[in-house]
Structure formats: structure tokens, C-alpha cells
Amino acid sequence: MKVLASAGREDVAIVYMADIGEKLYVEFVEAVQPPLPREKKWVLLVSTLLGCPVKCLMCDAGGYYKRKLSKGEIFSQIDFLIKKRFPSGNVPVEKFKIQFARIGEPSLNLNVLEVLGELSHRYNVPGLIPCISTIAPVGTDRFFEGLLKIKRRKYPEGRFQLQFSIHTTDEKLRDKLIPVKKWDFAKISEYGEKFYERGGRKITLNFALSEGMPVKPEILLRYFDPEEYLIKITPINPTYKAMENRLFSYIDPYHEQKDCQLVKNLRSFGYEVIVSIGEVEENYIGSNCGQYVMHHLKAKRHIKNAYAYNVSEFGATG
To answer: If DSSP states are collapsed to H, E and C, what string results for the chain?
Structure first.
């Protein structure tokens, strides 16, 4: 893998663009969470596919698909970032999160399981918390069965984060936002019962919430026990696809709305709710979920409030 370019800021996030051969390109991200220093929290977002076949309506990484990344190609992203910051392979970070969430639905690639099986002993990473964020496509049972085994064997006591991205409780609208066959709430709940460890880390139900997409607590409560699941609400990030499909964020990233009526309703049903806005600067960098810098570079017309950083040849950022 050859890193060709980057965009971002050392104190927020940096997106890297790399050639893995045959003019095939991947993106991956490292980020911190100001005001916390990197030694307190460091987050890596790595790609698992070359493109993505899912084509979620808010995601710039969908629309083309080449193939799955190999175990080595996934590790090359992680290796680069760790060696850049911690050449010895010792990562003295209290909370070191690796999210398989830059480009590609991870459950479509069984090589992700091999990476998860080797991560904890490939490096000295006592603070490691892997994260799988998924829409749970139909036909991925083998992946999730393997994930359950690895989690129990390698990542007990809450050292693994599982997130289902569902975005709305209206099944028809959910099918519109995520236009592939996927697990229904009943099947997600059935799997969650096996995955959750009593007293451990809760499973996350993620809503990248756009206006007009309902989230009804009474529907969630039929399937998801508040003792086992938490709700995370995030903005619709500024992407070309969101603009094209006229998706407008329910959460204004420029104004915290932690006590909006929806959050109050969810909490009244017993759910722990996180309104996750993050650093607005990441929208300008292009490092947030759903953003894809290479899509921006090919675009003829540019959008506002996103992708504002110059892409520099590797060695210069900002």
C-alpha cells in the first residue's frame, strides 16, 4: 500500500488516500476527540471494501463496488497509522477504538473476522475497543456467527462495540434509506440476545436522523430492552448523496440539542440516549461517516459546509 495524499488537522482528524495496487484506492481516517489528547482517546476508521454495493441514500461511498479487501489490505491501513504514531507497536492509549466503518459494509467481508481475531496480539494495545457498525444485510449470518465467537473469545467484559444502523423505526422508510434486504428488528433482537453480556457494554442502535424519519419508542421497546441497548442519534453529515436525495438533518450540528423532545421521549421509555455531534470541523475535513473525499475530488459542483480542506501529497496536511 502506498499512501498518496491526506487532508485534515493533527488536532482533529486526518483522512488518508492510498493506492493498494492496480490503481485501486482506499481511504482511512485517524481522529482524536478534543480536548482529550491522543493518549486518552484515539480513533481509527478503516475501509473493508473497495466501494460499497449498499448505496445508502446519505453515503458518498456507495454507487460503485469493486471487491472485498483482503486481510492484508485491511491490516495495511491499521499498520500505517500505528507505525506513524507509535513505531514500536506499543499503543499507550486509554481508549483505542478501531471502527470498520470508512468504506464498505463490514459484514459483507469475512476477512474482517480474521483481522478481529489477530488484532489483540498483533500489537500491544491494552486499550483496544474494536467497533462493528452494520446495517445487517440478509445473507450475512455466517459473518455474525463468527463475530459472536470472536467477541466471546477475544473481547469479553465490554471490550467490543456493536452498532446497528437503522435510522428510523418506519420499515418502509428504512428500506428507502437503506435499499437492500436486511434483517428486520426481530432478527436484530434475536442476535442481540446472544451477543449482549449482562452488565457489559450495551449494543448501540444508531439513527443518522433526517427530518421526516420517525423514531417511535414504543416500536423500539417491542424488540430492544433498554437494559441491553442504547440509542445514538447523529446528524446527517453534509454529503453529495444527502443533498441529491434531499435529506435534511434532524440534528443541527452547529447547535447542541441534547434535550430535544425526541430525546426526552426515548429516555421516558428507559433508554440511554447519546446525541453524538462530534467536531463540526470533521465535516470540512471529510472524515465523518458517509463522507468520501475521492467522491468530492471527482465532483463537478461542490457542496457547502463540507470537504473544504485541500488534499495534499502525503507529508503535508492542513
So the answer is: CEEEEEEECCCCEEEEEEECCCCCEEEEEEECCCCCCCCCEEEEECCCEEEECCCCCCCCCECCEEEECCHHHHHHHHHHHHHHHCCCCECCCCEEEEECCCCCCHHHCCHHHHHHHHHHHHCECCCEEEEEEECCECCCHHHHHHHHHHHHHHCCCCCCEEEEECCCCCHHHHHHHCCCCECCHHHHHHHHHHHCCCCCCCEEEEEECECCCCCCHHHHHHHCCCCCEEEEEECCCCCHHHHHCCCCECCCCCCCCCCCHHHHHHHHCCCCEEECCCCCHHHHHCCCCCCCHHHHHHCCCCCCCCCCCCCEECCCCC
Distances from the Cα of 225 to the Cα of 30, 153, 184, 242, 317, angstroms:
33, 25, 16, 31, 45
Asked if the model's pLDDT at residue 100 lies above 70, the reply is yes
Question: How far is Cα 292 from Cα 301, in angstroms, rounded to an integer?
Answer: 15
Q: How confident is the model at residue 313 (pLDDT cuts 50, 70, 90)?
A: low
Using 50, 70 and 90 to split pLDDT, how confident is the model at 152?
A: very high
Residue 31 burial by Cβ neighbours in a 10 Å radius (0-12, 13-18, 19+): buried
Cβ proximity of 67 and 25 under 8 Å: no
**Whole-number pLDDT of residue 87:** 95
What mean pLDDT value characterizes the chain?
Answer: 92
Sign of torsion over alpha carbons 26, 50, 247, 270 = negative
**Count of alpha carbons within 13 Å of 102, Cβ hemisphere only?**
29
Q: What is the sign of the dihedral through the CA atoms of 252, 254, 258 and 259?
A: negative
What nine digits make up the cell of 187? 432478527
Q: How far apart are CA 209 and CA 233, in angstroms?
A: 7
pLDDT at 297: 83
Domains, the chain: 2-311 (3.20.20.70)
